[in-house]
């Protein structure tokens, strides 16, 4: 329901010719169909493993998930946290295991359409490219950093996280080739 609302807001802003629309929005076939090349798409990617760990810790602090990482890693929340790029670029909240290969292909095709794909660990480069493309300086303050240091997770848990993140890791590595 949240992503349906976000798509509705996206489409409304596009219909209003809003100059800058930002937020976490799934790929919208409706936006592509009705607004085509009217807008330029921009995204900033973070290493999928670091992002998944960060999301786990955030949901842990908020009390949304248990403090047990083993239970988290075996559940749907971890699967969704580990496949953020795949979900957003395909426009689907849940992707069946049997559909992962096709979904990664679709997501790669859509990534190619972005005017700018940046990386959180290279924000200076992202900001420089943004200014070059759009002619304006983008300010990007850090607003939601973790209050403490990330703990070290055992190798077996890190292997589980990397396995869950495999589709997003593939997209992240592909995005690096688009520079």
Task: Give the structure's gist in a few sentences.
This protein is mainly α and 179 residues long.
Overall geometric form: globular
DSSP helix fraction:
55-70%
Question: How would you write the strand order of the largest sheet?
Answer: 1-2
**Structural class by secondary-structure content:** mainly alpha
Unreliable spans: none
Oligomer: single chain
Using only C-alpha atoms, the radius of gyration works out to 17 Å
Largest sheet: 2 strands, parallel
Count of beta strands:
2
Helix and strand run: HHEHHHHHEHH
* Fraction of residues in β-strands: under 5%
Distance between the termini: 34 Å
The mean pLDDT is: 90
| Number of helical regions | 9
Give a description of the structure.
The chain has helices at 2-15, 29-35, 48-61, 69-73, 76-82, 84-90, 100-111, 123-134, 155-176, and strands spanning 42-45, 116-119. Helix 3 (48-61) packs across helix 9 (155-176), helix 5 runs parallel beside helix 9 (155-176) and helix 7 (100-111) packs across helix 9 (155-176). With 179 residues, it is mostly helical.
